Amino acid sequence: MKHELEKDGKFSYLDLGKGTPIIILHGLMGGLSNFEGVGSYFPEHGYRVLIPELPIYTLSLLKTKVSTYAKYLKDFIDHLGYGDKEVILLGNSLGGHIGLLCTKMFPEKVKSLVITGSSGLYESAMGESYPKRGDYEYIKAKAENVFYDPTIATKEIVDEVYATVNDRNKLIRTLAIAKSAIRHNMAKDLPNMNTPTCIIWGKNDNVTPPEVANDFNRLLPDSDLYWIDKCGHAAMMEHPDKFNLLLHNWLKERNF
Which pLDDT band holds residue 179 (cuts at 50, 70, 90)? Predict the structure, then answer.
């Protein structure tokens, strides 16, 4: 995304458009650019899209856990000056998990929640999909496995993952957050979470398989589940137009 990052205190974020705020939460190996389609579509339709850079690799090891990022997100909402039930959270993978936990911890802050390929229920979603050190071809194969269409895993994406897992500081924190995500299984929490939730899932997700989406939909009291065919773990990257249409229609139906 060719936009300037806003830097304000401890927060760095993209701020696009005006209107109802959608705060986007990237995954562990995902960057802000993963949401380019969302960031170009929704500001044209009356939404303010905010994409904070999560401090995945900059906190102390003791603080590298899902609950820390959920509190960071709450601080970000407060920093922006939003009151109760004003913001929509949208998260992919670990970002979905952070959104879920923030909604559980601070339900008064969240108007609605959108999750796609989220961790939080399926233990193998964290760890297995985030490779340990290995040769470049191994990392490339792992990155391609995230998508239905392996060509989405461009050289730029593979290079970034390769650099991350071969950086000792980042690798240690990647493994720490993966362990924290496994510990924070939310199966018992979800039935008590009444926040309206839109679940958009790739039918060919190898990281968080389709049954995970069905479980989220079954356990959450007020959720709607939508599928995208020929789609892997990052629906908003692989099928941005379809993703945007499904989400926008849901937001309109729910008057968000």
Answer: confident
The CA distance from 208 to 93, in Å, is 8
- 124 — pLDDT class (breaks 50, 70, 90): low
End-to-end Cα spacing for the chain: 25
Query: How many residues are given for the chain?
Result: 256
96-121 per-position pLDDT tens digit: 999 999 999 999 999 999 999 999 99
d(CA 151, CA 131): 19
Detail the DSSP E strand segments found in 164-204.
Answer: 197-202
Q: What is the pTM of this model?
A: 0.93
Query: Which residues does 153 contact at the CB level (< 8 Å), separation at least 6?
Result: 140, 143, 144, 146, 147
Round to whole Å and give the CA distance between 171 and 159. Answer: 15
Residue 151 · residue 233 · CB < 8 Å: no
74-99 mean pLDDT:
96
Q: Beta strand pairing status for 87-92 and 47-52?
A: unpaired
Ranges assigned E (strand) in the chain? 6-8, 11-16, 20-25, 47-52, 87-92, 110-116, 197-202, 223-228
Residue type, 215: D
Rounded CA separation 53/196 (Å): 25
